[in-house]
Design goal:
Elements (H helix, E strand, L loop, with lengths): L4 E4 L2 E4 L10 H5 L2 E9 L2 E2 L2 H15 L7 H14 L5 E8 L16 E8 L7 H4 L1 E7 L14 H12 L4 E6 L2 E5 L3 E5 L5 E3 L10 H13 L3 E3 L4 H5 L3 E6 L3 E8 L2 E2 L7 H17 L2
Parallel strand pairs: 7-8, 7-14, 11-12
Antiparallel strand pairs: 1-2, 1-6, 3-4, 3-5, 5-6, 8-9, 10-11, 10-13, 13-14, 14-15
The structure holds N-(5'-phosphopyridoxyl)-D-alanine (PDD).
C-alpha cells in the first residue's frame, strides 16, 4: 500500500479512502471482470486490445459498461498522470454492483468500477535475462477461461504451489495438454523454429500480448501454428515462453525437472521480446 490516487465510480480518491460495499458481488460471488494494461514511458501498451476484450467479457456475463470507451481511455490517462506513473500497470475492475446476497441478480444493478496503478519496470525485468521455471499442475479452473473474471483462487493457489516447489510459475494441464500459464499465455518453439501456441477456445484467455506476438511473428517471418501441445512436447521443445501484459515475453527455461534447450533464453524468444517491446512502445498511446 502507498499513497496512490485511485478511481472509484467517478471519483478520484486517496487509496485509503476508497471503499466498496461488503455486498458488492465481486466480493461475494467473484462477479466482476478485470483488465491489466502495461504503462511504459507513461503511455499505454496494446490499449485497444484490452478495451475490446473488456467489452467482450462484460458482454459475455451481461454487465453493461458503466463508462464509454472514450471516457475509459481518459480515465486510464488521468490515473497515469495523477500517480506520475512512468513504468507500471493499470488494474481495472468492473463488478456487477452491490445487492443483498442472492445467487440471482436484477438487471438494473449499478456496476462498481475501480482502477488503481502499480509501479513495475517490466522492460528491465531480470527474469527476461535468466528465464523462469514452471511446474505443471491440473487445470482446475471453471470452463469459461476466455472471460477475464476475478475468480482467481485457483491460479493463485497454483502459483503458491509453484513457489513452494521452488519454481516461478505453473502451467495448467487439461486432458493431457497445456492450456496456459496461471496468469499468462504459454508458447513453445519447435526444433524448426516454429512458434506453437494453443488455438483460441473457451479453455484459454484470448491474450492481448498473444495476439500481438502472432502479428509480430508474421511480420518477422517466424512461422507459427495455433494448436494444443502436451507437456511432453513442451519439455522437448527448443524454447518455451509466456506472454502477458506484465511479463511481455518471458522465456521459460525449465518445465518440472526438465531443462529446456540450453537452460537459458533462446534466440527466438529473445527476438520476439525485443520486437514486442520496440513495436508496442512505438504504437503506445
Ligand atoms: N493476466 N492467460 C491468463 C489466465 C491470464 O490471466 C493472462 C493475463 C493472460 C495473458 O493475457 P494478456 O496478454 O492480455 O495480458 C493469459 C494478467 C496480466 C493478470 O492477471 O495480472
Amino acid at each position: 500500500m502507498s499513497d496512490r490516487i485511485v478511481y472509484l465510480n467517478g471519483e478520484w480518491l486517496p487509496e485509503t479512502e476508497a471503499k466498496v460495499s461488503i455486498f458488492d458481488r465481486a466480493f461475494l460471488f467473484g462477479d466482476a471482470i478485470y483488465e491489466v494494461t502495461a504503462v511504459v514511458n507513461g503511455k499505454l501498451l496494446d490499449y485497444p486490445g484490452h478495451t475490446a476484450r473488456l467489452n467482450r467479457s462484460l458482454n459475455e456475463i451481461g454487465i453493461k459498461a458503466p463508462v464509454s470507451d472514450d471516457e475509459l481511455l481518459e480515465i486510464h490517462r488521468e490515473i497515469v498522470r495523477k500517480n506520475e506513473i512512468t513504468d507500471g500497470l493499470i488494474y481495472l475492475q468492473i463488478s456487477r454492483g452491490a445487492a443483498d446476497r442472492d445467487f440471482t441478480f436484477k438487471s438494473d444493478l449499478k456496476p462498481t468500477i475501480t482502477l488503481f496503478t502499480q509501479v513495475k519496470d517490466a522492460v528491465n525485468n531480470p527474469q527476461a535475462e535468466t528465464g523462469i521455471s514452471v511446474i505443471t499442475v491440473p487445470d482446475q479452473r471453471w470452463r469459461r477461461c476466455d472471460i477475464k473474471t476475478v475468480q482467481l483462487l485457483y491460479p493463485s493457489l497454483a502459483k503458491m504451489e509453484a513457489k513452494s516447489r521452488g519454481a516461478d510459475d505453473a502451467w495448467l494441464i487439461l486432458d493431457g495438454m497445456v492450456t496456459e500459464a496461471s496468469s499468462a499465455t504459454a508458447h513453445i518453439i519447435d526444433a524448426n523454429g516454429k512458434l506453437i501456441t494453443r488455438q483460441l477456445t473457451t479453455e484459454i484467455l484470448p491474450g492481448i500480448t498473444r495476439a500481438s506476438i502472432l502479428d509480430i511473428a508474421k511480420e518477422a517471418g517466424v512461422d507459427f501454428e495455433e494448436r494444443a501441445f502436451s507437456p511432453e512436447e513442451a519439455k522437448n521443445a527448443a524454447e518455451a515462453f509466456i506472454t502477458s501484459a506484465t511479463a511481455f515475453v518471458t522465456p521459460v527455461v525449465k518445465i518440472d525437472d526438465t531443462v529446456i534447450g540450453e537452460g537459458k533464453p533462446g534466440p527466438v524468444s529473445k527476438k520476439l521480446r525485443e520486437l514486442y517491446i520496440k513495436s508496442r512502445i512505438e504504437l503506445s498511446i
